[in-house]
Amino acid sequence: MQTKYSLNLSQVKVNNPTPTIVPLSKLLKRHGGQRLHLLWSSGPARGVMSLKDSKPHLTPSQASELLSRLFGLTASQIKPLPSYDDQNFYVSVTEGGEYVLKIMNSTDSENWTLLEMHTCSMAFLHQHGLPVQTAVPTLTGELMNLQTIESESVSKRYMVRLMTYLPGTPVAKVSCTPEILYDIGKMAATLDEVLQQMDHPNRGALERENFIWNLSNTPLLEPYLHVMDGEPLQQLVKDVIEQYKCHVLPNLSSFRKCINHGDFNDHNILVEPDDLAGYKISGILDFGDMSCGYYVFELAITIMYMMIESPNPLEVGGPLLAGWESIIPLNEAERNSLYFMVLCRFCQSLVLARHAVAFYPENEEYLMITARTGMHHLKQLWELGKEQVESKWFDGAREYLEKHSGSVPLKPAVRIV
Predict the structure, then answer these.
(1) Does 170-403 match 3-165 at the fold level?
(2) What does the pLDDT look like over 109-164, one tens digit per residue?
(3) Which long-range contacts (CB under 8 A, 24 or more apart) does 227-234 make?
(4) Exposure winner among 29, 63, 144, 178, fewest CB in 10 A?
(5) Active-site residue 266, yes or no?
(6) Which position among 263, 266, 286, 289 bears the catalytic label?
(7) Level-2 CATH architecture, domain 3-165
(8) What local confidence, expressed as pLDDT, does residue 185 receive?
């Protein structure tokens, strides 16, 4: 049974205050350890030049003024947070409480319906007990407020939201034990399962046709492959795309559909110390890559990103898969495609990072941090082959459960009749 949840567009306000001078940065930035997002956040049509100037660049004093005028709060402490294409500020207020002031980039700010779905989805997940941020209403009751700001005589519009603050440390900064991986797999599955219950009139905004980070669109990498000319891995990437066309694409109809978070990585998952299990998940961040997809996509994406930071990448899949299947057992078609989908995500990261380097060669070292590690993992997975990797993952899941009698046992695999 689906639960209806709606954010009325009356809660979105367009405001045109007295213009404020805002210097905009023209430097592409990337938060260390995370994959590229800005250049392709709504598909190939969104070009580099149109987006590299769209990131807001407010000063802390300007952010404080927004906080006071829109939300009636006085900042006692305000500091920038790592961000990619948007701008985020940590805010502690004299009235009590901690928040994140989020100023969206000017391009995404124009897509009201998609931002509405992000806001609704977080509220829906929060209502169902998941540790996600929620939007705080303005003084006049809006959850999103579009501000017009002038920069160098050009007016740009930025959507402003005040989000609740989630405590915790990114998983990337802690030792990722099998127990944490199990919980991450379980949380990823739970998140998708809850989102699938949400019924909203604008749910179609999450279809995001040609969104290049959706694994359904793996073949859209082909126009970018020229950036890898001369590299040994170029042929491997071509082979992976062909494997997708041969072994995944014909079976998409057998995959179960859902809404994907799409970026369940170790920088978007927060944990806090827990006396019983070492750590517990305290927060899930960044819903900007949400799109309609399939359950197995979320699992593949999560495995790929957890492999990136792990000293034992092949050991990641077992406990993570055990956690996932304690909530959503894979059906036969999904199991047979998981290996290929993980390879596809590595290819997306590699090719799109290389494409960014073509525009910003001076930032190659920075842009390729994740991709360079991914190159090694991609090559290793390919050389080991599907049968050996699947055996490692699925046998590892069973071994994890045998050693942890308190874990929820795997449900039987779902068969398609």
Answers:
(1) no
(2) 999 999 999 999 999 999 999 999 999 999 999 999 999 876 555 678 999 999 99
(3) 227/351, 227/354, 227/355, 227/357, 227/358, 228/350, 228/351, 228/354, 233/350, 233/375, 233/378, 233/379
(4) 29
(5) no
(6) 263
(7) 2-Layer Sandwich (3.30)
(8) 98
